[in-house]
Predict the structure of Germination protease.
Amino acid sequence: MKYRTDLAIERKELLDEARGSAKDIEGVSMEKIKYDEDITSTRIKILNPMGEIQLEKPMGNYITIEVNGILDEKDEIKERAGKALAKELSELIKFHYHLKVLVVGLGNDKVTPDALGPYTVSKVKVTRHFFIMYEADGDEELGCVSCFIPGVTGSTGMETAELIKGAVELCDPEVVIVVDSLAARNIDRVSTTIQINDTGIDPGGGMGNVRTGLSEQTLGRRVIAIGVPTVIDSRTIIREALEANLPQAQQVDDYIEEKGQDMIVTSTDIDQIIKDFSDIIANGINKTLHPGIYS
């Protein structure tokens, strides 16, 4: 039985479970960084095609930041998490005088678990219009930042990737940052986890409605994806509950397949989770792209 997850760290955990222990994986490197007692980062790098096969993800960097105490409002936890995210993000996007970035918020702001992208982008500091107004070709403290919320195909009638390609042609960024909701296997990660990667993303993946992928191959620019798991597949919850009884779990799985009643599940705290994580991610992006005014 196959578990649905967008997180590289969960792919690694599933592989470890299948092998019976945590071992090194050919074609994959991993290191852990502890920022403080509440925040840790796991950096997974897929090095070659063998690693791609093992983790079922393209070659590149996958960074998982795990934050404890957000819903409990621990002391300055959101600010600390934002700094950790900025530290990891700045390793992938180096600030320089001519830096130009497009930040895209994927998702549907009318569906709370899918609203992470739009909520986050609304809090990012946009500066491109100032560069145009003052005819500036760069700045020592601010990046030239544009933001775009393309909506969803069901409400626009247009393919999200095509809209983003148009925005890329218009503002000519060096890097595109894409923010979206993800799916996880473990319910605990819905309120604790941020994933960053430099391989791109498939819009709608977290909601089970995959569209044309966004990557350097499709956009012609480096793509950095930032996501938070906001949903879990109902099958995953059932399998976890019945993992000691695999035949029964398979029966339930077959029933869901037969009835076509596949569903996704989210937390009762999802409104607060979206608010908190959009604050954290926007803060991290602002610190990375505008180091002169966000410290």
User: Anything to note?
Assistant: The chain has a mean pLDDT of 90. The first helix runs from residue 8 to 19. Strands lie at 28-34, 39-46, 60-67, 100-105, 144-148, 175-184, 193-197, 222-233, 264-265. The longest strand covers residues 222-233.
